[in-house]
Amino acid sequence: MKNKKNQELVEFEIGSKNVFNDLGFENAEEDLVKADLVIEIAKIIKNRHLTQAQAAKIIGVEQPRVSSLLSGYLDLFSIEMLMHFLVMLGRDIEIVVRPKRSRQRAHASVCILSRKVKAHQERQLLKRQVMEHK
Q1: What is the per-residue pLDDT across 38-84, written as a single tens digit (0 to 9) for each?
Q2: Is the whole-model pTM more than 0.85?
Q3: Is the Cβ–Cβ distance between 76 and 33 less than 8 Å?
Q4: Rg for the chain, CA atoms, rounded
Q5: CA 83 to CA 34: how far, in whole Å?
Q6: Fewer beta carbons below 10 Å: N end or C end of the chain?
């Protein structure tokens, strides 16, 4: 299809927040959680300038496993294993269970907090607690 200026128009669909669901993957929600965890692991490895061999030593696996991880072979890793890798890389893991929001379907998600965001949230919580006690 072309517009008035003879430029080709691209057709597209607006997807959901889960590309795995949009593509019809069987375990789309789990795959999205795994992908988010792998992205965080990859960022840590990159920011620390670690080789795959160095990263493997830290998380307790062989280098080819790190290669598979960074190449996106999500089916080779459980969510629990990915969380363990993050702990080994010096990250705290916090699991929050809460009532679902509005009429949306309940879901699983990953929220990665930087130190600045975490510190800000802790200050906000402390302020609320102080206000409640007045």
Answers
A1: 999 999 999 999 999 999 999 999 999 999 999 999 999 999 999 99
A2: no
A3: no
A4: 20
A5: 9
A6: C
Rounded Cα gap, residues 94 and 44, in angstroms: 18
Distance CA 109, CA 131 (A): 31
Q: Name the nearest CA neighbour of 112 among 87, 93, 128, 131.
A: 93
Note the CATH number of domain 19-97.
1.10.260.40
Q: Is 60 left (phi over 0), alpha (psi -120 to 50) or beta?
A: left
Residue 115 has pLDDT above 80, yes or no: no
Tokens (6 digits) for 14: 């607006």
How far is residue 105's CA from residue 25's CA, in Å, rounded to a whole number? 18
Which of 15, 23, 44, 21 has the alpha carbon at shortest distance from 33? 21
